[in-house]
Amino acid sequence: LTEDITERVAFTENEARFKAVEAMLSRISGRFVEAWPGTVDAAISDVLGEICQFADVERGRVYLFDRSRPIMREISRWQADADLPSDEGLRAVPRADTPYLTDSILSGGSVSLASPDQLPESADADRAFLRKRRIESCLIVPLASAAQRIGALVLTTLSYGRSWADGDVSM
Question: How many other C-beta atoms are found inside a 10 Å radius of the C-beta of residue 68?
């Protein structure tokens, strides 16, 4: 007798990944609960690094929308290797450079791209923005406060493309 256990193995792997994400989120929550007002920026930086390492990406950023101008401003960043190409052009991102991605964030949707080529044809500006910065793949998760979209967590790879599991997207 033989039995195909492919689905069972996949379920077990997904369950293990879910438990790992759950444990990480619990640790992260604890850091913010324990953070004193003067230590919140350091906590954000530490948490971003932990998320990036867990997700196995080369760069991560936290952006907040600037309510006075149509722009997202970086408040925290992490990168795996100091030898990665310069990324100075990502400190402030005008909405006009990424209209599709920004609209997705504002509507509450996550975006996961294994390649900029996965963007719809109508997202030419976004695709050009990602290619100019040599971004191979990205995961963008909206950040909300009191049901209002305030920014995004952006995870990227530069030296390889990658697909994003459902667990990564729902993180």
Answer: 6
